[in-house]
Amino acid sequence: MVDLKAQYNRIKSEVDVAIQEVIDTTTFINGPAVGAFQKDLEQYLHCDHVIPCANGTDALQIAMMALGYKPGDEVITASFTYVATAEVIALLGLKPVLVDVDPKTFNIDPEAVEKAITDKTVAIVPVHLFGQSAPMERLMEIAKKHNIDIIEDTAQAIGAEYTFSDGSVKKAGTIGRVGATSFFPSKNLGCYGDGGAIFTQDEQLAAKIRMIANHGQRVRYYHDEIGVNSRLDSIQAAILRVKLRELDQYAFRRNQLADAYDAAFGNSGKLITPVRFSNSTHVFHQYTLLTNGVSRDEMKEFLESKGVPAMIYYPVPLHMQKAYLDPRYKQGDFPVTEDLCARVVSLPMHTEMQDEQLQHIIATVNQFLQS
Ligand SMILES: *Cc1c(COP(=O)(O)O)cnc(C)c1O
């Protein structure tokens, strides 16, 4: 699905120097590379405060801890997402409230969000799924009207740009009260291990987030709150600094591949190509097709038998996951999500794909469609 080795080879000299520098100075934890990456990312995102942490799941958890929610508070999120989003809500004793998604963009449906709001709702967690922003303008209106927070899960959409109706443009993850991202190796901005970050424009909240990520201390050995230990290590930060410089080029390359896939399958009638939402650029974390009258599972099996990887993101809706079964929800409650889980299939999407590889993937998919 990705070729991280080929990607490394293109930036090897810079990455090797960056890693060696951390080793030479033995600044493994909280070294200068972490602060430098933080500054670079703040600049790239036009965001006042970036707080690096250990992974994307921690980023979400720390954001919710810093916002001071109480057990029983309700947090609304999409039923079609990666489990981490709902996991941290449940772990903190908050109540995950699921809503369905838009059948075209696969992103959270704002009207369903508004219907799910109660007097216990404290936050909405939109997930910018597969690389394009959720409908943030409408979500922000709803959040403002009901005086609740938005925590953006931007693990799949770093670099995507959202345009508001007044023409202003913001990067995904910097629009709500706080944003959370992941630098897992296969994400669009991935390190060589685990990493994550939290974004906010609110200085006071940023200070609280920093404190919670660092054992609840502002001053060493004085713990004001119960926190966690969640750090981005210096070697990962040094690698991310190099890769951040490539990020827009990576997104450009991903869009070129998406265009080629669109052109190849757009008129097939048997596959529905990704719908690009007019308010957001797409950074194609995943290129996800919807099968239409052909068997998704047979397609996946066929591709794999010909050496073409294909993945299902995600096969099971959150409300049907064993750990998240809840008497409030039953099969049929989120028809769009359930339908998507049965029909989505993602093709390889990465920055170093060779033209022969692309043509082979397209030919193999076409072979399946004609079989
Ligand atoms: C990857 C991902 C996360 C979690 O990131 P980790 O760094 O693996 O903890 C959270 N939400 C979404 C939507 C993701 O894709």
What does this structure look like?
The protein is of the alpha/beta class. It has 2 domains: 4-244, Aspartate Aminotransferase, domain 2 (3-Layer(aba) Sandwich), CATH 3.40.640; 247-370, Aspartate Aminotransferase, domain 1, CATH 3.90.1150.10. It has helices at residues 4-25, 32-45, 56-66, 84-91, 110-116, 136-146, 203-213, 234-244, 247-265, 296-305, 335-343, 355-370; strands at residues 49-53, 74-78, 95-99, 121-125, 149-153, 161-163, 169-171, 178-182, 196-200, 217-219, 222-223, 271-272, 287-291, 344-347. Helix 6 links the parallel strand 4 (121-125) and strand 5. Pyridoxal-5'-phosphate is lined by residues 55-57, 81-82, 84-85, 127, 153, 155-156, 182, 184, 194, 196. The site of pyridoxal-5'-phosphate has 15 residues, from helix 3 and helix 4.
Note the topology.
Blueprint: H1 4-25, H2 32-45, E1 49-53, H3 56-66, E2 74-78, H4 84-91, E3 95-99, H5 110-116, E4 121-125, H6 136-146, E5 149-153, E6 161-163, E7 169-171, E8 178-182, E9 196-200, H7 203-213, E10 217-219, E11 222-223, H8 234-244, H9 247-265, E12 271-272, E13 287-291, H10 296-305, H11 335-343, E14 344-347, H12 355-370
Helix pairs in contact: 1-8, 2-8, 3-4, 3-7
Pyridoxal-5'-phosphate binds at residues 55-57, 81-82, 84-85, 127, 153, 155-156, 182, 184, 194, 196.
